[in-house]
Amino acid sequence: MKSALTIAGSDSSGGAGIQADIKTMCANHVFATSAITALTAQNTLGVTGIMDVTAEFLAKQLDAVFTDIYPDAVKIGMVSSSDLIEMIAKKLKEYKAENIVVDPVMVATSGARLISEDAIETLKKELLPLATLITPNIPEAEVLSEMEITDEASMVEAAKKISENFGCATLVKGGHQINDANDLLYSNISYVWFKGKRINNSNTHGTGCTLSSAIASNLAKGYDLDTSVKRAKDYISGALGAMLDLGKGSGPMDHSFAIDNEYTTEYEE
Ligand SMILES: Nc1ncnc2c1ncn2[C@@H]1O[C@H](COP(=O)(O)OP(=O)(O)OP(=O)(O)O)[C@@H](O)[C@H]1O
Ligand SMILES: Cc1ncc(CO)c(N)n1
After folding, report:
1. pLDDT, tens digit, for every residue of 129-147?
2. Residue-level pLDDT at 265
3. Cβ neighbours of residue 164 under 8 Å, at least 6 residues apart?
4. Which of 168, 204, 233, 251 is catalytic?
5. Cα 14 to ligand 2 centroid, rounded to whole Å
6. pLDDT score for 77
7. Closest ligand 2 atom, CA of 40?
8. What is the pLDDT of residue 261?
9. For the segment 29-61, what is each residue's pLDDT rounded down to a tens digit?
10. What's the CA-to-centroid distance between 189 and ligand 2, angstroms?
């Protein structure tokens, strides 16, 4: 069985972060290992507390995983401080990690800030150049490209800028669009749209974490980038379309849809 490592924060409500990543990897038939960057006290209404691990303890987790169950892909999510980002970059280089998907998490669905201002600079300098793929949502793509995104043409322009600046592929996610949910993949000087029908479901807690973990899972299984994004887009559409409604705010998605219905057949290896 292939394995994927998630380096991310814990979400006590189970909808985003490490918990979403592990559920997604499992449902995509990949063994999930983890290195936790922070604990968050969080539910569908918001984040009430964040406690970072130390860089030394993060390094211990990464050493434990890389020296034993070497990952076929790595997904990186919430990393709030510069010293943690620097440690991750150091370890990814040391262990020659491959298939690295970076979800540049900045703000939670509920609006809470999950990265410090100075850490954004470290992310750009140290981590993004190591990525195979970066998966910003529209506000994150605006920060990384230093331009405004107002339509599909500016999504393409921003994705191109990010790819050129950091030397990797970029998927600008369209979850924040008004009418559509179209994601744009820019890689090797060309681009492709992954068109999604917008699902009328306000329970979108953890969509970004889930999508990036599904992409990492498919890369771990050996699919090329385009196919991995296509399969991940199908997965997120299924998980959102299952219309789970838990909690008092923007609730989590249903990962068991992939186990319960014919979707399993498509994803069986
Ligand atoms: N209502 C929706 N209907 C269909 N697809 C959606 C919807 N909302 C988000 N998506 C899809 O979910 C994926 C994640 O996109 P989104 O832009 O929501 O990421 P994000 O903002 O990083 O997520 P998060 O809320 O976890 O931070 C994308 O593939 C996007 O197209
Ligand atoms: C731990 C964690 N990571 C990422 C997100 C982004 O959705 C979140 N809300 N919580």
Report:
1. 999 999 999 999 999 999 9
2. 39
3. none
4. 204
5. 10
6. 98
7. 1
8. 58
9. 999 999 999 999 999 999 999 999 999 999 999
10. 31
Q: CB-based burial of residue 143 (10 Å sphere; 0-12 exposed, 13-18 middle, 19+ buried)?
A: middle
Atom of ligand 2 at shortest distance to CA of 205?
Answer: 7
| Residue ranges around ligand 2 (CB below 6 Å) | 8-9, 11, 16-17, 40, 42, 77-78, 105, 108-109, 114, 206, 208-209
Per the residue annotation, which of 174, 208, 238, 251 is the catalytic one? 208
3-state class (DSSP) for residue 51: strand
Q: Does residue 206 have an active-site annotation? A: yes
In whole angstroms, give the CA distance from residue 156 to residue 171: 10
Which residue, judged by its Cα, is nearest atom 25 of ligand 1? 109
Q: Which residues of the chain have pLDDT under 70?
A: 259-269
* Sheet with 31-43, side-by-side order of all strands: 46-52, 31-43, 3-11, 73-76, 100-102, 133-134, 169-172, 183-187, 190-194
pTM of the predicted structure, to 2 decimals = 0.96
Cα separation of 52 and 37, whole Å?
A: 6
What type of residue is 154? S
SS3 7: strand
CB contact set of 154 (below 8 Å; sequence gap of 6+)? 147, 148
The domains of the chain are located at 3-267
- pLDDT for the residue 28: 95
pLDDT on residue 258: 75
At the topology level of CATH, where does 3-267 sit? UDP-N-acetylmuramoyl-L-alanine:D-glutamate ligase (3.40.1190)
What's the token pair of residue 186? 């820019």
pLDDT at 267: 41
